[in-house]
Known about the structure:
Elements: H1 2-7, E1 20-29, E2 32-39, E3 51-58, E4 61-68, E5 81-86, H2 94-98, E6 105-112, E7 124-130, H3 135-146, E8 153-159, H4 168-177, E9 182-188, E10 202-203, H5 206-217, E11 224-230, H6 232-244, E12 252-256
Parallel strand pairs: 7-8, 7-11, 8-9, 9-10, 11-12
Antiparallel strand pairs: 1-2, 1-6, 2-5, 3-4, 3-6
Helix pairs in contact: 5-6
Amino acid sequence: MTDLLEHARPIDADAPQYNASLVRRADQHESLAAFWVRLDGDPVPFEPGQYMTIGVLVDGKVVQRPYSVASDPAVAGAEGYEFYVRLVEGGTFTPLLWRLGEGHRMRMIGPKGKFTLEPDDDRIHLFISSGTGNAPFVAMMRALLREGRPRRAVFLNGVSYARDLGYVEVVEEWRRTGDYPVTFVPTVSRPADPLNAGWTGRTGRVETIVGPVCDELGLIPADTVAYICGNPDMILSAEATLLGRGFPEASVKKELYWPKGKEPRGVAPRPGASPIE
Ligand SMILES: Cc1cc2nc3c(=O)[nH]c(=O)nc-3n(C[C@H](O)[C@H](O)[C@H](O)COP(=O)(O)OP(=O)(O)OC[C@H]3O[C@@H](n4cnc5c(N)ncnc54)[C@H](O)[C@@H]3O)c2cc1C
């Protein structure tokens, strides 16, 4: 009950801290959605793989979280910055974000982050993601495609249910047309669940298919660089697999979406909490 009441807290419609607007949202289902947020002034340049921090004010206090940008930097002025977000039950910010309609004012700062591509790297790019951890890889491929220099990629995305897979049409279209040389390898971790009825693709958590995929596609440390993003347990497990196969640490880049072992902390105000949650 407390949570419901806290989630019903009014979100400030206007505030001096707001510098952006939610210009579009597209709900994939009740707990997954893409959000486009556009800055009031000129867009701030960013590198694919970096993140922005978006937030709203509740009772005059900023509530904000970082999100990887999924869009190409080139469209930030016209379309805004695209974020692909999962609603976290009991989370602090995402239940607020889910209540926002198009046009709502927001605060957005950034970019930040070092989870970016190496310049002129002609190795095969092994992108490994769980859930919405696919977002930075979509931004990287979109930008490389626009620049006319796509890099051979193997793109793994693990989800619990097939309906959670994102950007499938975008990536499948690249593969089908040959516009982007990408091998897309989605996997679902709960194949026996009725929600996955009819799924004929790979099964198992994404970290369990890293080794088999490397073997099948001949991905070796000499000509492969790996980027891993999303759930920290997945990241550490996939990293261990790659290091065990002889990948040097410098060839395995990681973006953890939360610290290992951390659970959603809910929305109840904590004594002495910072005004920025
Ligand atoms: C650099 C960076 C980039 C990020 N980019 C994205 C992104 O593109 N898309 C996205 O959905 N999230 C992303 N996150 C996570 C995001 O910042 C929030 O932690 C998340 O939205 C939950 O916020 P909350 O306030 O609702 O939950 P909180 O009250 O802050 O609770 C956080 C907890 O929620 C759980 N959690 C956090 N993120 C997820 C998730 N994606 N799926 C399942 N459980 C989760 C974890 O248990 C975590 O400890 C990113 C995090 C970082 C550090």
